[in-house]
Prior knowledge:
Blueprint: H1 3-9, H2 29-38, H3 43-57
Amino acid sequence: MQAESLQLLVTWTMPFGKYKGRLLADLPGHYLGWFAREGFPPGQLGSLLALMYELDHNNLRHLLDPLRGPTGGR
């Protein structure tokens, strides 16, 4: 894992689906779990979703808080 990947989680938005437009860091755990079961998309998006799944699954979402900036990114 690279620090740049963590920063991308709080800046990239989901490009499709029910949560289109939502930051990857803000995707719900059940949606990330669905990707983990069904398969992550190819490329960088899939890698980022897999990373976000691991953070969520291991209760580590709080690690992204400092990257969101002073307003919390929400």
